[in-house]
Specification:
This protein is an all-beta fold. The strands form 4 sheets. Strands 3-2-5-6 form a 4-stranded antiparallel sheet, with no helix packed on it. It is about 0% helix and about 30% strand.
Amino acid sequence: LGITNDLSQNVLVEVLFDEYEELAGSTPKSQVIPGGAKAGFDIVFMSTTQPPQNQTSRFRQTLTYLVNGHHKFKITVCAEFIPVKVELSHPILKFAFADDHLGPETSETITLTNTGNAPARFSWVHARATRESQPKSGGQPHSAFTIDPESDVIEPFQT
């Protein structure tokens, strides 16, 4: 958002980004613009809801900004967003011990690929513990699996 001050004196411009959760990361919230100068506000859109798979969603809201705390102006902010898609290298993992393996553990690797143009956050969720895996004296359920990393961010077009 660019705002030009055509006056000869400074003005204070405050953009009410906090009216919408999706725009809360926008900066700066306010700034003084000298007479005859132009200033910019970075509008950052971030949705916390996931649109339906393979469909886009739209955001269209009226954003208010104030000049010197009294004069209200409005602009319309429009965004189109698509779901983040992370692909797995293997849809099914089959854990097996090699014939010559004598150790008590085995491992498999899954590669996650972000095919989108925005960072993708992920986290693995452990399956519910079975009755047999519940500790006898309270405490956390035991798991036969460890996952590393349990959560992370995959940058756009990266694995």
